[in-house]
Design a protein that fits this description.
Bound molecules: flavin-adenine dinucleotide, 1,4-dihydronicotinamide adenine dinucleotide
Number of helices: 14
Shape: globular
Strand content: 25-35%
CATH class of the largest domain: Alpha Beta
Structural class: alpha/beta
Number of strands: 22
Number of domains: 3
Helix content: 25-40%
CATH superfamily of the largest domain: FAD/NAD(P)-binding domain
CATH topology of the largest domain: FAD/NAD(P)-binding domain
Amino acid sequence: MAPYDLVVIGTGPGGYVCAVRASQLGMKVAVVEKNATLGGTCLNVGCMPSKALLHASEMFEEAGHSFAKMGVSVSAPKLELPAMMNFKQQGIDGNVKGVEFLMKKNKIDVLKGTGKILGTGKVEVSADGKSQVVETKNIVIATGSDIARLKGIEIDEKRIVSSTGALSLDKVPGKLLIVGAGVIGLELGSVWKRLGADVVVVEFLDRILPGMDGEIAKQFQRILEKQGFAFKLGAKVTAVDTSGKTLKATIEPAAGGAAETLEADVVLVCIGRVPYTEALGLKEAGVALDPRGRVQIDSHFATSVKGVYAIGDVVAGPMLAHKAEDEGVAVAEIIAGQAGHVNYDVIPGVVYTTPEVSSVGKTEEELKQAGVAYTVGKFPFTANGRSKVNQTTDGFVKILADAKTDRVLGVHIIGREAGEMIHEACVLMEFGGSAEDLARTCHAHPTRSEAVKEAALAVGKRAIHM
Ligand code: FAD
Ligand code: NAI
């Protein structure tokens, strides 16, 4: 087979974006995908289906609880779960087809099958008992991640589910027990809570959303509790008895002590994800892994084998689609001899609940630990005009700036549309901007983004509306 300039293994957001960028740069490119559809975890069982269900369940909740106060009278909404799942599937199909279109448009060959690296310049692609060897100048591993499992608790994707099963339940569980108060637990917990489940979240640590700013996480927990979430912090699930009609989960305090039993119809295990390198032949090819099983790379995404690179969830760093995409672009540019680069200090994180939580840069805890002197500016949505008229005043904006230089080091937002609002902070931080720069930037009125400007003004203790 004609040699390629680049073969990318995996077509998630890391892989397909890398392939497109490489093609734009004039390379002859192929992608290898073992799944029936392109798009990886994100499009098929991750970002996109979860956002479709978050949107649909939020509309259901709003129709039931928020319309009346605005004078919109509707009869009580009725859930038709199969139709909601169909809405989700239409979204998945549309996006997956979009990636197929991008492959065609950019003249990228799609090789269906499992990719195995035979060494520099050689990838074996196997499907249905047949295999072919493809020759290429460069290889990018973009094989993503898989769910982390709990020892002794078997995921059947029916009653004990991972995120994948939780995106496709065929009825609303009466009681949903979630193990892990991370992003998946809180997003998918929100979906099923809104649709009528009783949700209990068991979290090993003494807080939710580890890694997010502590003050934001605390307020977020209070808001979720108001919505009906129950949390058991500092606790772990050690066993689930599946013998009866109802599941019986054994919960133990993380610090040790007496166990208790909680009943549930469905248990969702979401305690993180692990890099996926199965069947890639990395050991035989000599591609080194780090102690956590991630493909080891240098600052140019190069692995220990010449001409083999890796990006996305399978390497170190936050397991986020946009991080994988940016790495895909950067590695394609590096292979083309350009100066591809990812700024890991400015990678936003968003939790797509209601309200949303978004964050970029350092948290207060990180700055304290690093001994950096900082100033804080905060502004609540209760003082933002647009939020007041819409009666959506939960949350606040928090800006952390260097005490000496005023450079913005971190921005954290809890509130509706926080996931959209964070990007002005990203652009500002990408350019090394200060709180003063943000405070002096004209913001349209009336918008929720004015709260970001006011928080920047509050860094200099001169917020106007507070
Ligand atoms: P993946 O998307 O995992 O793609 C890897 C691809 O490689 C897969 O298609 C797989 O089949 C293929 N593959 C693996 N091995 C081989 C092989 N040997 N041969 C051929 N093909 C192979 N991130 C966000 O940023 N925002 C979100 O809102 C968000 N929501 C999420 C919700 C859920 C429920 C989950 C589970 C994840 C979510 N994520 C989200 C994380 C996001 O999905 C991942 O960070 C992202 O998909 C990683 O992209 P990737 O390209 O590295 O790998
Ligand atoms: P996570 O790392 O976000 O959270 C896992 C949680 O489980 C942590 O709070 C951890 O302390 C807890 N935990 C670990 N072991 C436990 C145990 N034995 N008992 C109880 N709690 C335990 O992982 P999650 O939610 O599974 O998500 C996986 C990845 O997917 C994340 O890295 C995230 O970045 C990505 N993702 C991103 C989304 C987004 O950007 N909106 C949405 C969903 C997933």
